[in-house]
Amino acid sequence: MQITKNKVAGIHYTLRDNEGTIIDTSDGRDPLYYLHGAGNLIIGMEEGLEGKSKGDKFQLKIAPEKGYGQKDPAMTQKVPRSAFGDQDVRVGMKFSTDRGDVVTVTEVGLDSVTVDANHPLAGVELNFAVEVMDVRNATEEEITHGHVHGPGGHHHH
Question: Which has the closest alpha carbon to 120: 60, 50, 68, 44?
Answer without folding.
Answer: 68
